[in-house]
Design goal:
mainly alpha, two-stranded antiparallel ribbon, 6 helices, 2 strands
Length: about 150
Amino acid sequence: MSSKSGKIAELIKDCGDRGWDPHYVGFFECFNRELFFEAHEVLEELWLANRQGPNYSFYKGLIQLAGAFVHLQKDRLKPAVALFNLADRNIGGYAENHEGVCVRELLNLIADWRGRIVDFDFKINPLENAPAPKLDLPGMESTNSRA
């Protein structure tokens, strides 16, 4: 097992038995703890295994969303907006509720955070002035949720 696989296994060890793939649950768990890079890594394993599946673009969009917040954590606003745009395109093609997620709320979240950057001409990092959003997934305990 590679060190990356070991780290992912550790991150998802308590994410089983919730009706979803542990990697999927692990993404939300990591995202909601502001471990955006780890959220990306956890879901990437599931995404790569589903290259031909119906969730490929959805998972890709969620990975891009987490990546946008990695860029915000590193104060890289233009790459963050680029990933918000990609996430919007990949997630936007799905039905209102997909894989337990309200797609409309997720797209609103993306538009909101992208707008916070663009509206201030890439001069203000919104993550410095507001808490990061939380994502809801049925069966997860969640506080301060926004999507």
